[in-house]
Amino acid sequence: MTPEEIMKAVLFFLTVAGAGWGIWWRIDSRVKEADKATDGRIKAAEGKADKATTDLAAHKLHAAETFATKAGMQEQTAQLLRAIEGVGNRIDGLHERLDRAFERTTRTTRA
Predict the structure, then answer these.
(1) Mean pLDDT by 10-residue block, N- to C-terminus, for the chain (111 residues)?
(2) If you write DSSP's letter for every residue of 51-106 in order, what string do you get?
């Protein structure tokens, strides 16, 4: 090989290597830009997740303090059933009183 051919081969490989390095440099710069943008989005998402976690914990506490428990519901149900039973007993007693009242009025009209 002559020195001119060697220089052409070296120049060709340098050109190919330079083009490859240029392409890699562009790709790397875009990846770094995307990383910066992604970091901002990740921080925003983490902030939202932290706020959602805090809000959920506050809601759980509010629900535990405000809403009825199973034992409380059973106690109130038992009280309501006793009250309904008392009303039913009074209605039964009223029926007997009405029967007695009508019996008395019929006896007085005959006499």
Answers:
(1) 91 94 94 91 95 96 84 89 92 80 66 54
(2) HHHHHHHHHHHHHHHHSPPHHHHHHHHHHHHHHHHHHHHHHHHHHHHHHHHHHHHH
The parent domain of residue 54 ranges over: 1-67
Distant-in-sequence, close-in-space partners of 9: CB < 8 Å, separation ≥ 6: 1
Select from 47, 67, 87 the last residue of a domain.
Answer: 67
Read off the tokens for 103: 């019996």
User: Does pTM surpass 0.85?
Assistant: no
Structure tokens at 70: 């199973």
The count of structural domains within the chain is 2
Q: Do 1 and 55 sit in the same domain of this protein?
A: yes
Q: Are residues 45 and 2 in the same domain?
A: yes
